[in-house]
Specification:
This protein is of the alpha/beta class. The protein folds into two domains: 364 residues, 3-Layer(aba) Sandwich (Alkaline Phosphatase, subunit A), CATH 3.40.720.10; 82 residues, Arylsulfatase, C-terminal domain, CATH 3.30.1120.10. Helix content is 28%, strand content 16%. The radius of gyration is 23 Å and the shape is globular.
Length: 482
């Protein structure tokens, strides 16, 4: 600013000008995460025969994290970690939020300070579109089809529990992808609406409306914004995909899509399950890819591309029968490894990074990239990797932790660690039985052979690594190592 002009302006005016400049330079955030999309289905990796042209191009503009995982690969626990940055026993989201887990207090507390709360304090306008699944159903249960059985799943999120999100077009959890349902910002608990559109396409339409912001109705013009688009597909029901995406794979022989020895042969329970689902699963991913492309195009068309961080990831993967696992919530790579790409024009140089990034790290790392690292609460468990990403310098973790809680018993279930080479997991049963898994992914990338009985030195070392994680998070499961 010209010195004469500066000295002639009142101090309050200068402060306001500075604040305006800061707001203009503060980056926007677009956070897109489909449900159950495993990392191996990114087309540019060449690991599975999935067509993802938008993500292929996006990867050339982004940092791709080849070792990003979901530490607890189940929907609600991962979402709890993404937004709170807290270990599941601290976030209270110790399993999927349902009427059964509600008796354990399983839902994200209203007073948790999520990254969205941080951005709200920094003057951001916030929007949330799609699946939330961080509130437990309660009586009288909402009248939707997934609330009629013994276990209820869906619930409305009142404004007081939205953690700073101003614009709301969301639902708890609901898997009828061709006729999804949503609560709008001002909707009451009983006034949800159904839409005859495929979920990701409907959500992309809403995201584009938010970006375009006609007449300033959806967000405050001139202020930075953050928008989450939480798509449900490729989560099952796999078959609920528009035909135009199914047509991409309809003439491809299914056996040509069987690319891993960990997929059982035809004629077996899980081998047939995989073959019956794989085309539709890939179709949904190609559809998500196209809808993600529409969101990116809107950012560019409205001149917002250069000052917007775009994140594409997933809450977890999907085995779909691999290793005899129907979906997720297990320590295999197809469940744990997630796609993670971050684009930050002019700040992050596109490349592939093998840093062992965990779900918990997303909150502090994104806040660090956006310039708000100092506003992250001290109780957040994740690590801020922004400095490393921006400079290429700094420490890199040597392991990632893994967990699964059984029936609300935090002292039972699975705990483990994943390193660049090994996956090590202990399953502690209620009757004092213990199963130990050790896979050497360098020698056995498809995790076909459990070598726990053959590598006592590796087991001993990784047990000590696991102990340190459990101590760090004050996990009562630690008693099983004493």
């Amino acid at each position: 600013m010209n010195k004469i002009l500066a000295t002639s302006l009142p101090l309050l005016t200068l402060f306001c000008l500075g604040a305006t400049a800061q707001k203009k330079s503060a980056p926007n955030l677009i956070f897109v995460f489909p449900d159950e999309m495993r990392a191996q289905t990114l087309g540019f990796l060449g690991q599975e025969k999935v067509q993802t042209p938008v993500l292929n191009r996006f990867a050339s503009e982004s940092v791709y994290f080849s070792n990003a995982i979901s530490n607890y690969p189940l929907c609600s626990p991962t979402r709890g970690m993404i937004f709170s940055g807290l270990y599941p026993l601290k976030s209270k989201v110790i399993g999927n939020c349902t009427s059964i887990s509600a008796k354990y207090g399983c839902e994200l507390p209203e007073n948790t300070r999520c990254w969205s709360d941080v951005l709200k304090e920094q003057g951001y306008t916030l929007g949330y579109i799609g699946k939330w699944h961080l509130d437990s159903p309660h009586e009288p249960f909402v009248n939707t089809s997934n609330n009629v059985g013994d276990e209820k799943w869906n619930e409305w999120t009142p404004p007081s529990r939205r953690h700073g999100f101003d614009y709301w077009h969301s639902y708890g959890t609901y898997d009828r992808h061709l006729r999804p349902m949503y609560w709008d910002t001002e909707a009451s608990r009983d006034s949800f609406k159904y839409y005859d559109e495929w979920g990701p396409e409907h959500e992309a339409n809403k995201a584009i409306d938010f970006i375009q912001n006609k007449n300033g109705k959806l967000r405050k013009d001139g202020q930075p914004f953050a928008l989450v688009i939480s798509m449900n597909p490729p989560h099952m029901d796999y078959k609920a995909v528009p035909q135009r995406y199914k047509d991409i794979y309809k003439d491809i022989p299914v056996e040509s899509l069987i690319t891993k020895p960990s997929i059982d042969p035809a004629g077996t329970k899980w081998g047939d399950h995989y073959r019956n689902c794989v085309r539709d699963y890939y179709s949904a991913i190609s559809g998500v890819d196209e809808q993600f492309g529409r969101i990116l195009a809107a950012l560019k068309d409205f001149g917002l591309e250069e000052n917007t961080i775009v994140v594409f990831t997933s809450d977890h993967g999907d085995c779909m029968g691999i290793h005899g696992e129907q979906t997720k919530n297990n320590p295999y790579e197809e469940a744990m490894r997630v796609p993670l790409l971050i684009r930050f024009p002019g700040r992050l140089k596109p490349h592939t990074d093998d840093i062992l990034l965990s779900t918990l790290d997303l909150y502090p790392t994104l806040m660090g990239l956006m310039g708000f690292g100092s506003a992250v609460p001290n109780e957040v468990d994740g690590e801020n990797r922004a400095g490393y990403l921006l400079t290429g310098k700094g420490p890199k973790p040597e392991s990632q932790w893994y967990m699964r809680i059984s029936d609300g018993r935090s002292d039972l279930g699975l705990r483990g660690v994943r390193t660049v080479r090994y996956t090590f997991v202990i399953d502690q049963q209620n009757d004092n039985r213990r199963n130990v898994m050790l896979f050497d992914r360098r020698e056995d990338p498809f995790e076909m052979k459990n070598i726990a009985n053959e590598q006592p030195a590796v087991i001993q070392h990784l047990t000590q690594v696991l102990r340190q994680w459990l101590i760090k998070y004050n996990d009562p499961w630690l008693k099983n190592l004493e």
